[in-house]
Amino acid sequence: MPTTRTSRATTGARLLAIVLAVVMVIYFATSNAIRSGNPFLVPDLVLTLLLVGAAAVRGRLAAPAMIFAFGWAAAVWTVSLSTYITRGAFVDGANHIALIVPSVVAAGLLATRTGRSTV
Fold it and tell me: Is 58 in a helix, a strand, or coil?
């Protein structure tokens, strides 16, 4: 049976996953992201679907699914931020930090709150 601590972590992670997915949907709707020349189109679509799918998973697989989705999302956004940095346009990509940090924190909290002790 899940503990209150585990339940809160999982519920919070689900909410964050949905919020981040909504941010991506808004990004797709309000930018020129959906175009053939966008090298991040497929990774961005995949991370959006992973976040939504992971938020929908219930039971024992919920935490691992969300950890994977947050990890994928943080990786894609970090590579995207890195492309801005290498072009000398950090300011243009700095908004990625607001996506990366919560993803990493949520994955870490899920891992520590839902992990099983082997001792």
Answer: coil
| Residue 9 exposure: Cα atoms within 13 Å on the Cβ side | 21
Residue pair 20/96 in contact (Cβ under 8 Å)? The answer is: no
The model's pTM is 0.90
44 by Cβ neighbours in 10 Å (0-12 / 13-18 / 19+) ranks as: buried
**CA-CA distance, 108 to 70, in Å (whole number)?**
10
pLDDT digits (tens, 9 = 90+) for 64-117: 999 999 999 999 999 999 999 999 999 999 999 999 999 999 999 999 988 754
Q: CA 17, CA 33: separation in Å to the nearest integer?
A: 20
